Amino acid sequence: MVERSLSAPARRFMDLEDPDYAYMFGFLQADGHLHQGTGRKGRLSVEINARDVHILHDFQRLTPYYSSVRERVRTTNFAEQHRSALWTVYSLEARTTVNELGLPYGKKSLLIRPPRIGFRRRDYIRGIIDADGSLGWTAEGFPYLSLTSASTELAAYMSHYAQEVTGAERMLRRNTRDHVYVLTYFKEQAQRLAEHLYYPGSLALDHKRANAAAMQSWTRPAGMKVGPPRRRWTPEDDRELLRLGDPAAAAAVLRRTHQGCALRLWRLRTGQVTTPTV
């Protein structure tokens, strides 16, 4: 268990310049729920695996309103007896604060976005990753870090932030199966992101902090080549590809692969990517 700095009386609830609250808000956006009741009634809640109950006790200590943490066993699609932990706060003032910061009532997966005020960026992102992301090892033994989100604004922000940290570009595209964004970083990129996000003393899920630390021990095997950085298609590239209309000719002019040009041309012609304006 890592020692954490938790709330002191002088701290303002949900001050997003405070790293603990920035983390907590990111976690709530991804895994929390605001329920609207009749009149002034309602509740803010988070339900997670019971192994992670420690983070809910942290939220309880960070919240200057009455809240409860309890555990329960219930049947799910994945297990007949699933132990979960539930944190709940009913305060209208607390609910109003998180709602105004950007946690909507009801279904929210498409609506969440980074705060429109100043906030601690890496702590907020770590909260999102702890709730809706994953990090660890692939089947081949390579470190990875990923985020799955239905929100375009959140996925775009994560992609931009990760590029700042790692230099790796990611093209935003919803997958065909679930219609969500999946941003994944492997090997050294995953190591850099994990080390950056899970810094000493930061609030985090214990098992993900442990994974972030373990990932740092990986070293690239001798002889394993480092792939070249991806080149993003620019509007100028797209216009030239459409003008030529031939993947082979475009590959020579644009210095790209025939396969890459053929795929991009097909996406442009079928409307899967936006055709550049003249």
Q: Can I get a quick summary?
A:
This protein has helices spanning 19-31, 53-62, 92-101, 121-132, 152-166, 187-197, 206-215, 235-244, 247-254, 258-269, and strands at residues 32-36, 42-49, 67-74, 82-89, 133-137, 143-149, 181-186.
Q: Would you count the extended β strands for me? A: 7
Assign a percent range to the helix content. 25-40%
Largest beta-sheet details: 4 strands, antiparallel
Distance between the termini: 58 Å
Quick one: overall form? globular
Instruction: Compute the number of helices.
Output: 10
Description:
The protein is α+β, with helices and mostly antiparallel strands. The protein has helices spanning 19-31, 53-62, 92-101, 121-132, 152-166, 187-197, 206-215, 235-244, 247-254, 258-269, and strands at residues 32-36, 42-49, 67-74, 82-89, 133-137, 143-149, 181-186. Strands 1-2-4-3 form a 4-stranded antiparallel beta sheet. Helix 1 packs parallel to helix 4, helix 8 (235-244) crosses helix 9 (247-254) and helix 9 crosses helix 10. It is 40% helix and 17% strand. Strand 3 and strand 4 (82-89) form a beta hairpin. It is globular and about 65 Å long.
